[in-house]
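User: I want to check something. If I give you two sequences, will you return the structure for each one separately, not as a complex?

Assistant: Yes, each is folded on its own. Here is the first sequence with its structure:
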Amino acid sequence: MKKIAYVLMVVVLLFAIMGASNKTSKAGKSSSELVYKSAIKKGFKVKWVVTGEKVNFIISAPCKGWVAIGFKPSFMMKDANFIMGYVDNKGKVFVSDEFGVGPTRHTPDIELGGKNNIVKYSGKQNDTTTEISFTIPLNSLDKYDTVLKPNEKVYIILACSDSDDFTTKHKERTELIIEL
């Protein structure tokens, strides 16, 4: 009887130890631990990862001003959800959530009655490149934002300028299809 009790105690203890060692933390992963997908074209670099109901992007371009990404335009820039950003000469980061109101025009969502749905952002710049990181919801419920879905193929446009003025025409541009 003592042997059975001893064996049961050892088995229970082993299960307790194994269960404790196999638990996973519910804390979110840091951005350095996330596995990003990526694409490169014409000097533009795009990295992205879907995390729950949000998507994190890192975009960089060979310009010293603003960089932008537009999701799902219907014609040129029209109907695209744009995220634009730049880093000023003091290192402060500026971003804007915009909508393509015409083939060659975009306007901040808030000026159209929508919301700025950029959850968080950061950026950096050197002598040749601007990089902006940002997080947006997959579905912000804002009529000026594009609904994105994990594993969906998404047509994007990328542009950059050597100016920090979001209304300045792009210096470079390209387009890609990425799979979220």
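And separately, the second sequence with its own structure:
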Amino acid sequence: MPLFVLLTRYTPDAIVEPGEMGLLHARARKRLAQECPSVRVLASYVLLGPYDTLSIIEAPDNGMAARAAVILRTTGVFSTEIWPALSWADFDLVTAGLQSTQDLGRSGAPGSQAGPGDPVDEALEETFPASDPPGFT
């Protein structure tokens, strides 16, 4: 089943005391279990950064994952972001057989189709010649 990263922030008015975070989290999980029984929370963590929590969830599809995020938002307690996630094994399957970037003519890459007179390379050389670094005042 597809995996998703669910990032949440508590709204500024939602928490008065730190102990309330756990209570709000438990209520949210209960509501998700009732309204999205096909969504399973695999792990959940408290974060010390711009987000308050990170949960790894399984959902049958993007729509059901989005539904879970919207349910949390409608409580008025959370703002949410939901990101699809792939295991490395799934990523390897998805990217197997893709053309190498070296074959796409990326400037500066070994095997690149770019040669002398490449406008991007010329612009870089004209902007910052090694002999004349930018001055900071």
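Because they were folded independently, the notes below concern the second chain alone. The first helix runs from residue 19 to 35. The radius of gyration is 24 Å.
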